[in-house]
Amino acid sequence: MEKLPSQNEFESRQDLQRYKEDAWALFALQLRFNIEDIQTVAYDSIITDWSSSQSVALTDKITGGDDKKCDLIFIDRNNGIVVIIQSEIYKDSNQPTAKKNKASDLHTAVSYIFNNPIESIPDGFKQVVQEIRELLNNDEIELIQFWFVHNRPESEIIKNELTSVTNSALASIRSRYKNSNVKNIASLEVGKNTVDAWYGSLENSILVSDEFSLTISEGFSIQAGEWEAFVTRIPIAWLHEQFQTHKDNLFSANVRGYLGRTKNHKNINNGIRLTALENPENFWVFNNGITILVRDFKDIQEDSTPFRKLIIKGLSIVNGAQTTGAVGNLDSEPGESGFVQTRFIKCSNKETIKKIIEFNNRQNEIEPSDYRSNDHIQKRLRCEFGAIPNTTYYGRRGGSEDIIRRPNRGNNTFLSLDTVAQSLASFHQDPVIAYNNKADIWLKDELYSKYFCDLTSAKHILFAFSLLRAVENKKDALKNKKDSSSLTKLEEEQLSFLTKRGSHFLLVAAIAKCLETLLEESLPNYFCLSFVNLDPEVSIVNWGNIVDATIPFCNQLSGVVSNSLSQAESAKSSIDQFERMVASTFNSNQNI
Hints:
Layout: H1 5-12, H2 14-17, H3 23-33, H4 38-43, E1 72-76, E2 81-88, H5 100-115, H6 123-137, E3 143-150, H7 156-176, E4 184-190, H8 192-203, E5 208-216, E6 219-224, E7 227-235, H9 236-246, H10 266-278, H11 283-286, E8 290-294, E9 296-301, E10 308-319, H12 321-328, E11 339-347, H13 350-361, H14 376-386, E12 391-392, H15 400-405, E13 413-414, H16 417-427, H17 431-436, H18 438-443, H19 445-451, H20 458-484, H21 489-498, H22 503-513, H23 515-519, H24 536-550, H25 568-584
Parallel strand pairs: 2-3, 3-4, 8-11, 12-13
Antiparallel strand pairs: 1-2, 5-10, 6-7, 7-11, 8-10, 9-10
């Protein structure tokens, strides 16, 4: 049987192959959430043999075979999202269905994460469970999803089993976490067809191809060049019906889609919901409206009536995902008196369609990094990186095409904006900010100007970024050695440390703090530091030697990340201890 386009793309992704059985699930995560730097997410997410993760935690290997029935846990604190994943890769992907017992395993994951006493949970798994429970108690989670990821077709048997998982999780959260108002809890079978649909949505604007008929009382058309639009009002009840039927496929042309009532937009989305339920007649005047891309439409005047028939073929909501999601998630259908202003656009030119999607999406949810993408610092850095071979730095958030193109292929190194910010914050002694408050780097002037200032150069960014990559590679090297042979007791301690959430940022800060010792000179300005050879791979290798020489002292840092990297003073104290240990052994390591 011929492979799906997403399977061919996956097999070409050499950067994912290091994650072995977890690679397919990470590929699905990247497609669904438009993750630019999957390596850093995977570091904090895939926890081999011990523990957890911004966001994913490998749990069935965590505790020496003590299977908790989930493989990955993805946490996006900025948007209040938790995705709990059980993954299974079959050698024969053409069989009609996956095994039901693997989907059933998520019931066990629900019990461990939400119900079991925290003292009964092994240390490696405890950290991620504590974080999820803390977020629930603080009402900081808006969306929880349970995924069963596999490489076979989806089936009703699995779907029914996952519905039971959802009900179990909902009951646990309602009974145990009274402060939590999370309502968006769902289970999803992510088989090869779903992954292919997500992949296709990055290339194909319209996934919902049905024909729809709407009765309207008024409207008008506009035409210019290669596009034509029809402007009217549509019942919000119809919008609710389509969301209930098509879910995420409605947003195939929308870069972000509907990710739930994210905490940054909780008040706005609750306002939409309340208006739809309690004051639907004012919905049109309170809301900015939505834009829908269609394959075709026809406006037909009905005989002897004041009404018209609008026939639509295919649809994808380009702008208005939050409106549609808020209305679509109502427990009951909104009132008949509610309408929303709507533009239906059809266009045959692919380049124009791309621009329609791009410019309409600029009006959607704004990521914190978007606020800085056009300031003079980022413009200068983009120019500087243009002169450094084998690097790609957009200085902005990438779009869906950037995910498909994957600029990290071959010898090219892609530096995503958020990872650059986190590596700079860690290098300049703020690992807690890097781990917990990534968004604040972009939102708060005092933090942004601390890391992205007139002294910040592309060469220095590469210097800090390559140290982060060297630390991540050290974890991979220890994992691979453990899989192929065995680790020494000291190496086991190192891998145990590196599987803790936020450990990579803490170790980057600790090594950077030792640079005066390593270079044997005073460094009044760390921003002046860079490598002479700017090849990214060479830079990572250079740091690898330093990581190898200093990581034996990671026991000085372990206590800070045992629960989560949250206390700045504790982090500073442990880094100081680490620096003293490195200084005390400097003479014996001088050659390195």
